[in-house]
Design goal:
The chain has a five-stranded antiparallel β-sheet with strand order 1-2-3-5-4, with helices on one face. It contains three helices and five strands. By secondary structure, the chain is an alpha+beta fold. The longest helix has 17 residues, at 58-74. The structure holds guanosine-5'-monophosphate and zinc ion.
């Protein structure tokens, strides 16, 4: 989508601090980090949010979580990490392109605010 921020980041039209890239995914650091490690993983194709996922997206989601596990191991997130995807207004989603936040290297509170 031409006017989607994360589509433009995926296409390299808007710069990002990339951690990982392949044919289907991009991982890059969040511009406003909420933890010592805070990066985002996005599919390169536009999906509005997790609410738009279907059974057909199972391979994509498996790949997302495998890449997250690999990156967290490489970054030494030995104490654990949190994966979050916000959906819609009540979920706190500000960018309407599916993305997974990965937060690590501090103790994270639960429940979230
Ligand atoms: P949401 O609120 O939709 O769950 O998360 C969107 C995230 O994207 C926020 O954590 C925000 O800091 C991040 N973000 C927004 N604009 C940019 C940008 O231009 N570059 C990067 N790297 N992150 C962004
Ligand atoms: Zn998009």
């Amino acid at each position: 989508m031409a006017d989607c921020l994360f589509c433009n980041i995926a296409a390299g039209k808007i710069p990002s601090n990339k951690l990982y890239e392949d044919d289907t995914l991009l991982a890059f650091y969040d511009i406003d980090p909420q933890a010592p490690v805070h990066f985002l993983v996005i599919p390169k194709t536009h999906i509005d949010s997790a609410a738009a996922l279907t059974e057909a997206d199972a391979p994509l989601l498996g790949h997302v979580f495998a890449v997250i596990a690999k990156l967290c191991a490489e970054l030494g997130c030995d104490g654990g990490y949190r994966v979050v995807t916000n959906v819609g207004e009540d979920g706190g989603q500000s960018v309407k392109h599916l993305h997974f936040h990965v937060l690590a290297k501090r103790s994270l509170a639960w429940p979230p605010g």
